[in-house]
Amino acid sequence: MEKLNNFIEENKGRFVEELFGLLRIPSVSSKNEHKADMHKAAEYIKKSLLDAGAKTAEILPTDGHPVVYAEKIIDPSLPVVMVYGHYDVQPVEPVELWKSPPFEPEIRDERIWGRGADDDKGQLFMHVKAFEFMVKNGSLPCNVKFMIEGEEEIGSPSLGKFCEENAGKLKCDVILVSDTSMIGRDVPSITTGLRGLSYVEVEVTGPNRDLHSGLYGGAVVNPVNVLAKMIASLTDENNRITISGFYDDVVGVSQEERQAMGKAPFDIEKYKKEIDVDELGGEAGYSTMERTGIRPSLDVNGIWGGYTGEGAKTILPSKAFAKISMRLVPDQNSKKIDELFISHFKSIAPPGVRVDVRVLHGGEGYVSPVDHSAYRAASKAYEDTFGKKPVPFRSGGSIPIISLFEKVLGVKSILMGFGLESDAIHSPNENYPLWNFYKGIETIPLFYDYYSKEME
Ligand code: BES
Ligand code: MN
Ligand code: MN
After folding, report:
1. Which of 70, 181, 318, 448 has its CA 20 to 30 A from that of 79?
2. Phi (first) and psi of residue 262, to 5 degrees
3. d(CA 401, CA 160)
4. Is residue 262 predicted with pLDDT exceeding 90?
């Protein structure tokens, strides 16, 4: 461990500089104008992996953005760890709220600021540097593969097919992922669950054009008024989702398990303060950690329609739109939920409007067992570097490919995320503390050691 700490100490500045190179590439997967940047980011990672000691690295095309694949096989009889990460990032808007430009990374207050600093460029880069250490130090105890994709933030639409077509290449014993967060800097934790997702866009159409709201108001059904009512009716007074059949496949969690989860040292006051709200809300009968970890949810992500420009314009709009996401838990299936949503939403539309629902993307949830060799290895690694046994907990976020890996490759993933809530992922002013970045680089090689011992 001393060697590792010295290596980090001596190379800190270079690690950050190299990460900055990646952060400067605006690889926003959802926007066509960034198509060339996706390739640039893929090239950058390929080069970083080769420089770090990968034997081979290549850029593999998919139906969407390319995947970077690299490997170092030291002995075919040893286990294979496959590192997964994503080089794509979320859009940066509203850009005026950033204190420094999103693609001009800088260090302030011991943190790296920029889009992707945590999610996931900063976190995946910890793996590149940990790998570099193990190669240079001659201490790599097993085989390593890297699969870094560019479509995670848009739901990994091409990755199911990609995994099927490349199943041989991606063969491995465990998948190692840093794309989640910890409960707190002093509460090391390992994510044991992710939620699935159904994401839809709805369009409500009334009259064939925006109408004069004086001449027509009160006599013609207003699609924006209607949409607001329809959305309001999707949850009841207990904040339960009203779509019939929605909860049918939700796996209940035993009282014992709930009690164990309740022991996780989650600081609710800090959580509220961080986002500046004085009260929280959600499904009646569940704690905050349970509401995000083991219960599904429904949220409007955006809503628009009619006149939203400066000043007043007296119209009765022709159309109203909303983007709605539903976070799912085991054993809900996103395709089934899409169907339930579509038929429910159409059924509640009043006469006078037409409703169209488009499915934008989706994916399934994931639960990772704590009695798995990789969990034990990760747990020991955290205990060494944090001086505390990590707490298992279920996160509310989603990484669609993780369930695909299980389904297509039959391989479990271990979610060793080092992010914090304060990292503001997907928000303006995303950041990643240097402390977490270095802590990750320090913990990862220990995982490899313990995992290889587990597999002997
Ligand atoms: N890294 C996140 C997911 C995450 C963050 C999980 C923190 C747990 C803790 C990932 O990049 C992400 O944002 N996923 C999307 C998936 C979607 C776009 C299909 C999400 O959860 O919204
Ligand atoms: Mn991510
Ligand atoms: Mn993300």
Report:
1. 181
2. -65, -15
3. 8
4. no
Closest by CA to 195, choosing from 310, 290, 301, is 290
Q: Is 344 in the pocket of ligand 1 (CB under 6 A)?
A: no
| Tens-place pLDDT, residues 94-124 | 999 999 999 999 999 999 999 999 999 999 9
Superfamily of structural domain 2-194+365-454: Zn peptidases (3.40.630.10)
Ligand 3 ion: Cβ-proximal residues, 5 Å cutoff? 119
Strands (E), 73-120: 80-86, 106-108, 111-113
Q: What is the DSSP letter of 70?
A: E
Kindly state if the Cβ of 292 falls inside 6 Å of ligand 1.
no
User: With 90 as the cut, is the pLDDT of residue 157 above it?
Assistant: yes
Regarding the beta carbon of 430 and ligand 1, being less than 6 Å apart is answered no
What residues have CB less than 8 Å from 75, skipping those under 6 apart? 143
CATH of 197-250+296-362 given 3.30.70.360, 1.10.3660.10, 3.90.960.10, 2.70.70.10: 3.30.70.360
φ, ψ at 332 (rounded to 5°): -65, 145
Q: Which of 87, 151, 152, 364 maximizes ligand 1 atoms within 8 Å of its Cβ, making it the mutation to test the pocket?
A: 152
Q: 453: left (phi > 0), else alpha (psi -120 to 50), else beta?
A: alpha
Query: Atom 7, ligand 1: which residue's CA is nearest?
Result: 180
Q: Which DSSP string corresponds to 350-413?
A: PTT-EEEEEEEEEE--EE--TTSHHHHHHHHHHHHHHSSPPEEEE-S---HHHHHIIIII---E
Residue nearest to atom 13 of ligand 1 (CA): 153
CA distance 52 to 137: 12
**The whole model's pTM is what?**
0.94
Q: Does pLDDT of 263 surpass 90?
A: no
* CB-based burial, 325-348: b 16+ in 10 Å, e otherwise: bbbbbbebbbebbbebbbebbeee
